Amino acid sequence: MDLRTAGSALLASAxxxxxxxxxxxxxxxxQLSAASRAPRTVAVVGLIPGAGRTTAAALLAWCVAGYSDxxxxxxxxxxxxxxxxxxxxxxxxxxxxxxxxxxxxxxGDVTQGRLTTLLDAPLTPGVARSRVRSAFTPGAxxxxxxxxxxxxGFTPQYLDxxxxxxxxxxxxxxxxxxxxxxxxxxxxxVELVDHFLLVVDGGGEPAQTVAAVRDWLASAPGRTRxxxxxxxxxxxxxxVPTIPPLGLPVLALERDEALRRRRIGRAARRSVITGxxxxxxxxxxx
Length: 286
Fold this sequence. Notes:
CATH superfamily: P-loop containing nucleotide triphosphate hydrolases
Structural class: alpha/beta
Helix content: 25-40%
Strand order of the largest sheet: 3-2-4-1-5-6-7
CATH architecture: 3-Layer(aba) Sandwich
CATH class: Alpha Beta
Distance between the termini: 43 Å
């Protein structure tokens, strides 16, 4: 028995759970490495508030950027409108919702959205990389494109123009969408993205919820085309629900106190494993 084998056997006997997690991590990372290198645009969709949509989007982007060499850009299409109260000390007024955006979760300054810098560029694919970098929100990692707080919020036209300019400039674009099936941006998303990540709450009947979101996606307006999707069940309890086969990949995100506190850099091992599996799923060749 060589030293590596002996060490693995010792670790397995001392901590079977840790060994299982390490094996799962290696497997998930291998799946991500083997995934298609074709550029992908992924929309993260949740039909009810609080399902974990933004957490899922942040975890996906953070894991793919941190555990692969892919260029990842996040589009914060869920930027809330500016608050009705006046600004103070020269800073825009913010709703409490601004602190819960993916921009904030990834460490960005929600008052310093610079997407308009990119939107001012000519409407052609392959905008200069320096122009794209200048539009990133300060402090965010992975890179985030967001609007500054404004009464209008994020419009479908902004999304269309942003994704056009990002062609050839990212391996994975993650779009965090507004909550609810009636959000105008969602009608644009359906036509523009390559894959959907459907996020549902693990409480109640998650299988029925996943099926409902899948059916909503299939019946969304626009030209008829295949809309590949992955479902993520976000569990806040101690029991991980069992999801029957639904005709699409379904993953479960276990309860994680660090993610609940929006500290993505301290995510639990199993959350990172789920994030890597999500990355492999959304990047697979459909």
